Amino acid sequence: IWDLWLSGTYQSAIVAADDAGVFATLAEDPATIEELAARLDFDVRATGILMRLLASLGLLVMRDERFQLTDQARQYLVRSSPFYWGHMMRVAVSEWHRDTALAKLKTKGSASAAGPQGTPAPTGSGRPADGWAAGEIAIGQAKAIAASMHSHSLPAAIGAARNYDFTGVNRILDVGGGSGCFMIAFAQAHPKIKATILELPSMCEAAATYIEAGAVGSSVDTTAMNMFRDPWPEGYDAIFFSNIWHDWNFRTCAWLAERAYEALPRGGRIMLHEMLLDDDGAGPAATAAFSMLMLLATQGQQFTFGEIKRLLEQAGFRDIATQHTAGYYSITTGYKR
Prior knowledge:
Blueprint: H1 2-6, H2 8-20, H3 22-28, H4 33-40, H5 44-56, E1 60-63, E2 66-69, H6 71-76, H7 86-89, H8 95-106, H9 128-134, H10 139-163, E3 171-175, H11 181-189, E4 194-199, H12 201-213, E5 220-224, E6 238-242, H13 250-263, E7 269-277, H14 285-297, E8 303-304, H15 305-315, E9 318-326, E10 329-335
Parallel strand pairs: 3-4, 3-6, 4-5, 6-7, 7-8
Antiparallel strand pairs: 1-2, 7-10, 9-10
Helix pairs in contact: 2-8, 4-5, 5-14, 10-11, 10-12, 13-15
C-alpha cells in the first residue's frame, strides 16, 4: 500500500528534475548534492531530497561521493539523446507536484529557516503542517487529519507495540500524538504503561474518540498545548514522536530534541518513530518518495540514522540505537545519562 501511494511522486519528481536542469547538468559532470545546488543556485536541502529519490529510482548512482547519471537516465532523460523521453513523461503529470518541487528548489536556506529558538513559522500553504506551526487547527480539519493519520499509522503502531523493547518504560509523553493510535496500541499491548498525548486542543478532542474506541481511557489521556511554545510536562520516562520530525527542518528538529532532553529525567529516553533512509540516502524508494512528499507538503524530510543520531547527540542524548519495528519503520532511541 505504501509503495502504491508513494509512487505518485515519481513522475513529477523526474519532470521537475528535467525542468530544473538536473539531468543536463549531471550529464556534463558528476556532483555532490552541495555542488549541484551551487551550480543551479538551488536550496541544498531540497536538492538533496530530489537527488536521493532519483537515485532510489535507478536514475542516479553515487561514485566517489558524487552523483552521476545511470545509463538509463543518460539515454532517456538527457534532451540531446535521440531517445529522450521527457515529452512523454510530461503527459498527465501532476502540475501541483511539479510546480511545488520547482518552487522548493528555488527557496534557499530551508534547512535552517525558523523563528526564535527553532519554532517553525507558517508557510501560508494551507497544508496541515501550517496548523501546528501556527498553533491552531479547526475541529473539522483536526478530525480529518486524525482519520487519515490513524489509517496509515495503525499497522505501524501495532508493529511498534509488538517489537520495541519497552523495558523500563512506564510513562510515555507522545508529542504531537494525533489520533493517539500509538499510545492506544502501546497501552493495549503493555497494560502497565501510562501515556499522555500532547496535542493542540482540537486534536485532543479528535483523539478522544479513538481512545474511547480502544477502551484504554484508564491508561491514555491527553493534554492540550502547543508543542512548540508551551512548557512540556515532566514526570515521564519516555518522550515519543511518530512522523513528527519529518514535518520540520533540521533546526526545528534540533530544538525539539533539546526540549525533550530538558523534560526527561536522568535515565529517560527519547523514541523517534520514522521511516529511515539508507545510510547513503539513496533508498529505499518508498522512503525517498516519502521524503519528497514531505518536501512538497511540509517543512521537513525523512532522515538517515546518521542524521538523527547527530541531532540527538547535539542535544545531549547518548547510547543512540535504532530498532526496526514494522514495514519501513524503525524507532531510534537515545538516553539522557
